[in-house]
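Need tokens for this chain, all 306 residues.
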Amino acid sequence: MPLQPDGLTFVISPEVERTRVNYKNRYGITIAADLYTAKDLDRTARHAAVVIGPSHGGVKEQMPGVWANELAQRGYVALAFDPSYKGDSSGEPRFVSSPEIFMEDFSAGVDYLGTLEYVSRERIGVVGICGSGGFSLGAARIDSRIKAVVTASMYDIGENYRNGWQHGWSDADRRAERDRLAAQRWADLDSGEAAYDPVFPEEVPPADVELDPITSEFFDYYVKSNDRGYHPHSQGGHVAVSHLGYLATAACAIWRTSPRGRCSCSLVSWPSPAGSPRRRRSRSGTARASSRSPVRATSTSTTGWI
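Here are the structure tokens for all 306 residues:
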């Protein structure tokens, strides 16, 4: 869909109100976000709320806004945000990528929602789309205020930067990448400018150019010539030396050692009103009931949240 006059990559529902808001994370970075609510929302009651993060190269006007628009129509208070260093949020240099800060951005969203009188602090969840999937899981691991996690098309950026495409890197490959980025830091220092990863092209490459499946999907959505999800704030590339932070940790992987319980499922939710037993993903990949697990594995339907 072509970029809309209001800057969104989709058409907002006439039943939904979008309000631009700003707040700071604990690093002092100003986060720009859009708050989506139903126009007829009862503000004398307290409602469930959701913080929604974009893909690693995306912004709030893309997929987070699509999700927020839909969830607002279902009674949720939904917050779609630009991560630090991207979009309308502050932070220099632009397009730094940091697993710690990107996890903090989710918690900062929880902070903001918790200041709203019509939001229940005990019913705040997060949605991580694509690259934000790993960051949302990492945030939930360390922030017990987050009561539910949903990932959509999750892509673990840390795992990719640490182990290579399709886990193809050896220890020697990782050391070589570390040394390459260390040399790049010297080059950035000497030039006075940060080097960036390749950004999205203006047009999708011709059919005879072979692309891996992930790159093909990225181009299909983000590239300007496709007029599908293109937004001028979403360039794709990041400061190259940002990868060093991911060589040390993978944002998604730490969830598996979470003190809140082991869970490798990609979608969890609050217990149902009927109080059905919580379920946990077993090592064999099947779901099993558990009275101790802090989360419950569910289907991918967002309608099950209400």
